[in-house]
Amino acid sequence: MADIVTPRDANEVEAAVQWAIAQKKSLEIVGHGSKRALGRPAQFDATLDLSGLSGVTLYEPEELVLSARAGTPLAEIEALIAAKGQELAFEPMDFAPLLGGKPGQATIGGVLAANLSGPRRIKAGAARDHFLGFTAVSGRGEVFKSGGRVVKNVTGYDLCKLMAGSWGTLAAMTDVTIKVLPRAETEATVMLLGVDPGQAAAAMAAAMGSSGDVSGAAHLPAAIAGRAARDVAAGRSVTALRLEGVAPSVAHRKKALEELLAPYGALAALDPAPSRALWAAIRDVIPFAAGGPAGERHVWRLSTAPTQGAAAARLIGEQTEAEFLFDWGGGLVWAALAPSDDAGAAVVRGAIEACGGHATLIRAPAAVRASVGAFMPQPGGIAALAKRVKDGFDPAGVLGPGRMWAGV
């Protein structure tokens, strides 16, 4: 069989996996390859290219449900549902700016396999929370299904939650079903200017604890704010709070939020168009884009409690030269570190051990990702559980072995 296998339907995916099992070969699963540089680099015997499994197979706007083949471009799905005034509420990011790839190449299968989510994560949840069902081929070469077309359809294990974030190491998904939601009529962003990360964390906590129904809360320090909000930053940090909904509601909540935040410092606001542009830049981490001023830096993604984000950044900043972008109210920290032999792994993971959470090395040369690992090392008990899950779905180690952790 060729080094690159491009099946046209689920039966051919099943045949490809069965061939790999019989020949004792390993398979790398890709859609359009937009996230290929993520994770621990590993050697595979062949590539299972699922981009040929494309097309929306069911869309019922009234029922807020959509089914598509796994290789369907995300852009195609977003355009289709936007025409009906709907959206993917989990707001998946595009990794292309960070990784130096071509934007708009993500597939719905890849988005779900990586469990992506954007700034609206604090309100709408991650991709897994909108993942209703799928059909897939396991590493045993067996077709299986889970879930369906409604949320309350799970008897036994909720395998959608397991597949989301498995990075194609447990099964090759061929068809997926997701929940879509109505798109907000309008939006606005209230900005607090010139505060430090600690003050920003307090302001974001106050905003999210209010009745404002904030759908995005991010802090961009002065050093990087101009790369995302050039017209308003003017050398100052930007703490942004997004409000979405019908126009009268947004206007009312905006006024209340400005009154709440006034004691923290100077305020500014963005109308719908510049607001959307700012949040797209935050979602895709444009300040750290591969072609920009931080393009040579090694980039980490830290997930921690919102109250600990500023502390984790401070610990890292005390030991190495770094820039930060805070999303999810401070719970998601993007850290761009000066290049080094270990990408600052000891420093970053030490900060996470002190503050809680986990860290993923997103951008670094393959040799660095191979030596330090891209995903956080797991404690013994969790590592053993992960190995048992992998062995249950893929006992021969056919699908993406070593993609997440060495030997798994």
What does this structure look like?
This protein is α+β, with helices and mostly antiparallel strands and 408 residues long. It folds into three domains: 49-182, Uridine Diphospho-n-acetylenolpyruvylglucosamine Reductase, domain 3, CATH 3.30.465; 186-283, Alpha-Beta Plaits; 286-364, Alpha-Beta Plaits (2-Layer Sandwich), CATH 3.30.70. Helix content is 33%, strand content 24%. The chain is built from 15 helices and 18 strands. The protein has helices spanning 10-23, 74-82, 96-99, 108-113, 121-124, 159-163, 197-208, 222-228, 230-233, 247-261, 272-283, 309-319, 345-355, 366-372, 380-393; strands at 4-5, 27-30, 46-49, 56-60, 65-69, 86-87, 131-138, 143-147, 171-179, 181-182, 186-193, 216-220, 238-245, 266-270, 298-303, 322-327, 332-337, 358-363. The strands form five sheets. Strands 4-5-9-7-8 form a five-stranded antiparallel beta sheet. A hairpin with a 4-residue loop joins strand 16 and strand 17 (332-337). The longest helix is centred in the middle third of the chain and has 15 residues, at 247-261. It is globular, with a radius of gyration of 21 Å. The two termini are 25 Å apart.
